[in-house]
């Protein structure tokens, strides 16, 4: 179970302000390309499951790292997300092959893809589809005892700004982050939808 604090920042100004405040604590910046897949008749999403390939690098065609993940039964309440998550690294070449031909999901050897085949029973005759995806620029910061992830997510229909923090004590982490935001006059609200849900909706939710 992945448990994360997710707070939405009001706009690019809020994102830039927080980035400046946290700049002494920056450890790395990731350029992520997120690509999603489903069965042709929504076998995964109908069971609240999400299959994602994430390529790390400015260009997914030359990315040197690719991570495959399966998420299920996500719940997001008061800015705290809880979701069942399984991840494994995948050869980026294989990831790009799946992106080009999603039906390879039915035959490639992978612990997660075996789970997809066994648990969701996508029919061979209907196969798999690529749902598309979005780009994310993530700054990773080590602040106090927390690892903060500051996201700028670029959808075709707009840009979302968020701060996330995975924690075994989400209420404590949320309180610390909210105090930081308030002290610096940074406008925020509790995130109400996952990035995938926003992507599927085709529009940014109201702030």
Can you tell me about this structure?
- This protein has 207 residues and is an alpha+beta fold.
- The protein has a single domain (2-199), classed as Hypothetical Protein Pfu-838710-001.
- The chain contains five helices and nine strands, in the order βαββββααβββαβα.
- An eight-stranded antiparallel β-barrel has the order 1-5-4-3-2-6-7-8, surrounded by five helices.
- A hairpin with a 2-residue loop joins β7 and β8 (158-166).
- The longest helix has 14 residues, at 170-183.
- It is globular.
- The model has no long low-confidence stretch (mean pLDDT 96).
Write the layout of secondary structure elements.
Elements: E1 2-9, H1 12-22, E2 26-39, E3 49-56, E4 65-77, E5 80-90, H2 92-100, H3 111-120, E6 128-143, E7 146-155, E8 158-166, H4 170-183, E9 188-190, H5 195-201
Antiparallel strand pairs: 1-5, 1-8, 1-9, 2-3, 2-6, 3-4, 4-5, 6-7, 7-8
How do the strands of the widest beta sheet line up side by side? 1-5-4-3-2-6-7-8
Count of DSSP strands:
9
What's the average pLDDT?
96
CATH uppermost class: Mainly Beta
SS content category? alpha+beta
């Amino acid at each position: 179970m992945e448990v994360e604090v997710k707070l939405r920042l009001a706009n690019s100004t809020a994102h830039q302000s927080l980035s400046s405040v946290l700049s002494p604590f920056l450890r790395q910046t990731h350029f992520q390309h997120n690509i999603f897949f489903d069965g042709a008749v929504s076998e995964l999403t109908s069971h609240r499951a999400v299959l994602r390939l994430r390529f790390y690098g400015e260009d997914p065609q030359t990315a040197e790292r690719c991570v495959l993940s399966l998420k299920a039964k996500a719940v997001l309440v008061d800015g705290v997300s809880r979701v069942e998550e399984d991840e494994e690294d995948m050869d980026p070449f294989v990831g790009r092959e799946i992106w080009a031909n999603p039906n390879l999901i039915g035959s490639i050897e992978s612990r997660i893809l075996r789970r997809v085949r066994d648990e969701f029973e996508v029919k061979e005759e209907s196969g798999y589809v690529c749902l598309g995806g979005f780009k994310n620029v993530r700054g990773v910061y080590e602040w106090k005892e927390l690892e903060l992830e500051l996201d700028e997510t670029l959808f075709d229909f707009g840009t979302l700004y968020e701060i996330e923090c995975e924690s075994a004590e989400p209420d404590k982490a949320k309180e610390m982050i909210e105090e930081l935001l308030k002290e610096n006059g940074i406008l925020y609200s509790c995130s109400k939808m996952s990035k995938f849900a926003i992507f599927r909706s085709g529009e940014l939710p109201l702030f």
